[in-house]
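Page 47, continued from p. 46.
Same chain as before, 122 aa.
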Amino acid sequence: MTVKSNRITVAYAYGLTDVACIHAAFDAADLPVIIGDETMCRVHPQTTLALGGMRVQVWRGDVAEAQDLLAPMAKDRPPARFRPFVSALLLAGFALLSVPCHFGPGLYLHRPVSFQPPQIGD
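Result:
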C-alpha cells in the first residue's frame, strides 16, 4: 500500500539561521511549515550537508504562498547543489571517527599490555 503525502518540499535550508528566518516568516504569515531533519541537524550540524539540507515542506494548497515568502530570502544566494561525493566522504568520516568513542578503547587491543617500569642504571 502506497501512501502519498500532502506535503510538498519547496526549499532546502542548510543552516539553523535560515531555519529560524523561515519559521519567523511563516509564523508571521500564519502558514504551517514543516522542517524535515531539523532535529538531526540541531544535534549534529555537520550532517546537514550530508543529508542534503533540511527540507522545508508545506501543504499542497500553500505552495504558491510559501514560494512567495521564500523568494526574497533566496534571491541573492547561489543555487545549492547536492554533492554525492562530499556527502559520502562526510558520512564515512563521521562513522569512522565516532566508532571508538562508542565501543571504548578496549575493543582494539588484541592482547593485554602490562606496564613495566623503566630500569634505572647499574
